[in-house]
Amino acid sequence: MSKRKTVFICYECGYESARWLGKCPGCNQWNTLNEEIVSSRKTSGASRQTVQTNKPQQITNVVSNDETRVTTALDEFDRVLGGGIVPGSLVLIGGDPGIGKSTLLLQISSQLANKKLPVLYVSGEESVKQTKLRADRLGVTADDLYVFAETNLFDIGEHIKQLKPELVIIDSIQTIFKEEVTSAPGSVTQVRECTSELMRIGKTMNIPIFIVGHVTKEGAIAGPRMLEHMVDAVLYFEGERHHTYRILRGVKNRFGSTNEMGIFEMKEQGLVEVLNPSEIFLEERSHGTSGSTVVASMEGTRPVLVEIQALISPSSFGNPRRMATGIDSNRVSLLMAVLEKRVGLMLQNQDAYIKVAGGVKLDEPAIDLAIAMSIASSFRDQSTNPEDIFIGEVGLTGEVRRVSRIEQRVQEAAKLGFKRVICSKNNIGGWTPPSDIEVIGVDTVQEALRISM
Fold first, then answer.
1. Any residues with CB less than 8 A from the CB of 44 and at least 6 apart, and which?
2. Cα gap 203→56, rounded to integer Å
3. Structural domain of residue 22, as residue ranges?
4. CB–CB of 412/394 below 8 Å?
């Protein structure tokens, strides 16, 4: 017999408490504990017997087989996953409402179904007719694409066992419920239990499963934090709803590189991949304007050239403002302090507004030199050479430090017609740059300012 009890579970971290608490001891967030009814069952002897038959093995005796990945017609999507879809993998895709998650997954389903691979698309938020309307708009006409509008996990599992598809898509996990769990759909317990059951089905039947997760107002995937630990890969679909470009970013991937990025453009016929994102981000750059520099940033295994813009103006208040879009505002304050102490720029009474053009978010240290050059250029009202690329990490003493993968960055800059790369002297040597671009090594930020302005 199962016993029911009431517990309070934090929807941010999954912490369980026997009574309600205003502040969660697990994640220190306020008002995140919700009351839920859970049932506890004793483990049967058959289950214990199954566990006992699974014995530890020596790792040298384990036979490893190279899994054949399933590729789609979207190379950007395959790159983010590490080269394609791995059979038996569980992938979580999150993003803001209306960003294009369902559109992307329906396009992928159509491409695999066109290869005579059966795909099951489970929609818990839309009816079959509503899904058909989106399919007609995207031009989806594959016979091997099966649409199923259901929220009961037991029925979904039965149809997966009968159909045995090559791919299953759950849209979304917050609408699926398990009958044995008394909590409402979307609760912490339901999301955790449904994800565990889907993971068991996918691993035992060797079927890749994509689940869509809603996001909170802070941008994190709704539900317990352990949901991201359970899945094999976590993909975030980013971008402004009123802009055409979308960025698919991988933040976790057990089968490939993390922090990989794929760029798409939203059109009437669906999402179209952008093969050369550097050219897209720089196409509207204005030459000869102060406060504008270009940096070669690594997004996973791909170098991307992005414009960094800075606007420095005298402050009208006692405390100057520091605003940044696409980069950490604390990094901007740190670099401004370095410029004031080591270079002699009086920035303590100046408002600073920094932006990464194109809506990209950058967080690697190699963008420090480009940010510092943009700030100095706007403060002096002198433009840098439009054919220069700035790459390097800036230390608190004003030195320019080496960065990784300088060869790929320089090759991407040469491909787009840039003539000079200003980087750390420690990055020069041991490799041969392209013949049509000059690589200049500097020791300090002050030396980089003398060369470029």
1. none
2. 19
3. 3-41
4. no
Using alpha carbons only, what angle is made at residue 238 by residues 236 and 242, rounded to the nearest 5 degrees?
155
Residue 52 within any structural domain of the chain: no
Contacts of 125 (CB under 8 A, 6+ apart): 171, 172, 175
CA distance 20 to 411: 58
User: Which position has the token pair 């408490």?
Assistant: 17
Q: Across the strands, what pairs with 199?
A: none
| 290 and 266 within one domain | no
pLDDT per residue over 384-393, tens digit each?
Answer: 999 999 999 9
Report yes or no: 379 and 347 within 8 Å, Cβ to Cβ: yes
Cα-Cα-Cα-Cα dihedral sign, residues 90, 276, 68, 165:
positive
Please say whether the dihedral angle defined by the alpha carbons of residues 22, 27, 29 and 32, taken in this order, is positive or negative.
Answer: negative
Domain containing 203 — which CATH number? 3.40.50.300
Split at pLDDT 50, 70, 90, the class of 367 is: very high
Q: Which residue has the tokens 């405390």?
A: 319
Kindly state whether residues 129 and 96 are assigned to the same domain. yes
| Helix or strand holding residue 52 (H, E) | helix 45-53
Considering the domain architecture, whether residues 144 and 198 belong to the same structural domain is answered as: yes
The verdict on 296 and 263 lying in the same domain is no
Q: For 309-346, how does the pLDDT look when each residue is reduced to its tens digit (9 = 90+)?
A: 999 999 887 789 999 999 999 999 999 999 999 999 99
Cα 6 to chain centroid distance, Å, stands at 36
H helices of 90-127, in order, are 101-114
Domain limit, last residue, from 275, 307, 331: 275
In the 8-state DSSP scheme, what is residue 257? -
In this prediction, residue 216 has a pLDDT band, given cuts at 50, 70 and 90, of low
Domains held by the chain: number: 3
Does residue 389 contact residue 294 with C-beta atoms inside 8 Å? Answer: yes
Q: Is residue 57 part of a domain?
A: no
Q: Where are the beta strands (DSSP E) in 82-232?
A: 90-95, 119-123, 145-149, 167-171, 209-213
Whether 428 is in a domain gets the answer yes
Length of the chain (residues): 453
CB 110 within 8 A of CB 118: no
Identify the top-confidence range among 22-36, 136-150, 238-252, 271-285.
136-150
* Phi, psi (rounded to 5 degrees) for 210: -105, 125
Other CB atoms within 10 A of residue 183 CB: 20
- Residue 437 to residues 55, 389, 403, 416: CA-CA distances in angstroms? 59, 10, 19, 11
Domain shared by 359 and 253, yes or no: no
> pTM to 2 decimals?
0.76
Q: What is the DSSP letter of 395?
A: -
Is the residue at 35 inside a domain?
yes
Tally of CA atoms within 13 A in the half-sphere of 333 that contains its CB: 8
